[in-house]
Write the structure tokens for this entry.
Amino acid sequence: MKPTLLIVDDDQGILTQMKWALDPDYEIVSAEDRPGAIESFKAAHPAVTLLDLGLPPRPNESEEGLAALADLLAIDRAAKIIVISGQSEKKNAIQAVGAGAYDFLCKPIDVDELKLLLRRCVYVSDLEKGYLEMQQKLRADIFENMLGTSPQMQGVFAYIRKVATTSAPVLLLGESGTGKEMAASAIHRCSSRKNGAFIAINCNSIPENLLESELFGHEKGAFTGAHIQRKGLIENSAEGTLFLDEIGELPPQIQVKLLRFLQDQRFQRVGGRQEIQIDTRIVAATNADLKDTVAKGKFREDLYFRLAVVVIKLPPLRERGQDVELLAREFLQQFAVQCDKGNLAFTPDALNAIRRHTWPGNVRELQNRVKRATIMAENRRVTANDLELLPHGSESVPRATLKEARESVERELVEQALKRHSGRVTPAASELGVSRPTLYELMDKLGITKGESKAQAAADAGATFEVQKS
Ligand SMILES: Nc1ncnc2c1ncn2[C@@H]1O[C@H](COP(=O)(O)OP(=O)(O)OP(=O)(O)O)[C@@H](O)[C@H]1O
Ligand SMILES: [Mg+2]
């Protein structure tokens, strides 16, 4: 099927000429002014639009054309629009590119140049469509707002689904920012308790003397200031889920009371004698090594075993493979919309830096860096610098030994060559100026397989397209 091309020009002569030149390769639709352009654009969904900036009622100025550009981009932010201007309005054409046009051409138009540009534009448009489809497919992997296609995260999602059907306490382990609170809330929403309350409390954020009454409530007159009876979070989360974050920080006295509650669902409010029975599910989390806290005598072992009936470990972001890029792109898209920045894309050096960074602050760190970068980004691109990450290579060089440095350069060159030739060894070897056996030896030494460089090539095709897109 031929791609559809919309030509917006009020000059009949030029229209006829272009139709004649482009007809064999494109399904052509045309319009002569802004309203016509909008109508045809909506009806035909063209792969590319050629837009003359000088449109009636003032064909000698660019305003109407620029307004049409804005209208079309408002209908479809990803629209591929090539603007055409007179030599003297080149400045306006450049302005149009800044406003989201794909590219520009100046009159008189060179047909070969136009054809080339159109072909490239359709190619990029196709790639983008494929990429969007892929993203949509990946979105299907969103589990209760949690993103993750890595086997590690798919395992976590499967586990959450399973434990959600029970009321057993769950202990969530994971470094800071790995999504423990999100997982807790997912457990709640997947369970039969989803219509009850989900209440989260950070055990470290409240002074010890207040924490007990916060959790268990208090009777009137239980302590100075307790003018009225008050229910605690356990009661308030009845039929729902109570999420206890940083459980390792729970003071010993409260540990005893929580243990008792976990044993028989009963407790007394502070200053009260009446036994209250409540059905709430306890989900606890910590980024500390709770077993070690137990070993040090700071956390009761019996409470640990009660809480850790089911343990779910959230893997650190650096162990989630391509999830980090998926999350980075998703956050970039979200923040770009929030900041009204239109289509933003990572440059290849930004993607490289994202892949190389070890993300000690995990998903939260990624979110924060992308947020800041979205604000800093210029020209629709987010660089490693915007992310405040070191560009590729600059972090590892200083401490490398000569052998490491040599291997790193060799690896880089071999991987790049294989990538350029889609994993084919013969052309890669000839490009590197070595024999095939030598290249095989090198690959063996460096632990590079052909498959890896193919996958890398595919991944980088995505990266390249992002550059062209903006
Ligand atoms: N898989 C994910 N998909 C999308 N967003 C995520 C994911 N995991 C975490 N986030 C986001 O990252 C941030 C940190 O997540 P969350 O607060 O759940 O982590 P945490 O492990 O509880 O952190 P901390 O140990 O610091 O309390 C949140 O803004 C959350 O929305
Ligand atoms: Mg948390």
